[in-house]
Amino acid sequence: MIPELSIMEKAKVITTIPGWREKVPEFRKEGKTIGFVPTMGAIHKGHISLIERSVSENDVTLVSIFVNPTQFNNPDDFNNYPVTFDEDIRKISEAGAAYVFYPDHEDLYRDNYRYVISEKSLSKILCGAFRTGHFDGVLTVVLKLLLISGADRAYFGEKDYQQFKLIEGMADAFFLDTKIIPCPILREPSGLALSSRNALLSEQGKAKAPLFYQHLKRSATIEEARKKLAASGFEVEYVEEHFNRRFGAVYLDSVRLIDNVPLTLKGV
Ligand code: PAF
Questions:
Q1: Exposure check for the chain: N or C terminus, fewer CB within 10 A?
Q2: C-alpha–C-alpha distance, residues 92 and 80, integer Å
C-alpha cells in the first residue's frame, strides 16, 4: 500500500455567530493573528489565491460562505447563483484554512435589513449605476462579517475593484480594526478573469468570453473597446476609466461579467 504523504485537515464549519466569536479571545490570548476571506461560495482558484495569501500571513484563517441576498438586484441572479458547498469545503481545506463560517440568513439579518450601510459617491458609478442597492447590500454584509470575524486582515480580489475601494473606505470611515488587503486578479491562460459566474456560461460563451479582457486591454479608447465588444456579440453595460484603470461590464449568454485593467497595460 502506498503511504499517504499528507493528510489534509478538514476545515471546521461554524454555523453560529457565538460559535466563532467565542474563539476570537482564545486566539488573541495565544497571540495568534486572524485572516478573513469572505466569499459567497462557488470557490474557484481566485478565492484559493486569497485564502493561501491569508494562510501565509496569519496564524488562523477564517473563510465565510454566505450568498448574500441583499446585494442581488435581480432575483434570478440570486436564484441561479452556483452552490457547491461540499466541493467548497474540500477546496478551502486544501488551501489550508482551518475554519469556515456558514451563517444562516435569519441570524445575520436579525434586523431584517433595517440597518443599511450606504456610501454616497463611488457606489453610484460603474456597477452601482446599473445595480441599484447592490453596494448597500455588499457594504452592510461585509461590515457585519468583519465585526463578527474579529480579523486582523481581510482579503478582497481586485476583479471587484470598486467593491474593494468601497470596503477599504468603509473600514477607514468606521475605524475598523481590520486591515483591508487587495489581491491581484487571477486569470485563465486565455486572459478571462476567474469568476464564479464563468460556470454559468455555455460552451460557446466560454470560448468567446476571453475577448472581453482582450478588447478591454487592447483598445486605444473606451469607444473603441465598446465597439469591438459589441461587434464580438457582447451586450455592453459600461466601459469607463477611473483610478487609472479601465473598467468594463458586459452580458454574455445573459451572464454578467466584469473586469478591469490598469491603464499602464492598455494596448499591451
Ligand atoms: O465578492 C464577493 O464575493 C461578495 O461581494 C462578498 C464580499 C463576499 C460579500 O457578499
A1: N
A2: 22
Q: Which atom of ligand 1 is nearest to the CA of 38?
A: 8
Atom of ligand 1 nearest to the CA of 145: 9
The pTM score is 0.94
Read off the pLDDT of residues 187-237 as tens digits, 9 standing for 90 and up.
999 999 999 889 889 999 999 999 999 999 999 999 999 999 999 999 999
Task: Kindly state whether residues 129 and 251 are assigned to the same domain.
Answer: no
- What contacts 24+ positions apart, CB below 8 Å, involve 77-84? 77/256, 80/200, 81/40, 81/42, 81/196, 82/41, 82/42, 82/196, 82/199, 82/200, 83/41, 83/42, 84/41, 84/42, 84/43
Domain check: are 74 and 175 in the same one? yes
Which one of 54, 68, 146, 183 would you pick to mutate in the ligand 1 pocket, going by the greatest count of ligand atoms within 8 A of its CB? 68
CA 22 / ligand 1 centre spacing (Å):
24
User: Which of 183, 207, 228 delimits the end of a domain?
Assistant: 183
222 lies in the same domain as 91 = no
pLDDT digits (tens, 9 = 90+) for 25-74: 999 999 999 999 999 999 999 999 999 999 999 999 999 999 999 999 88
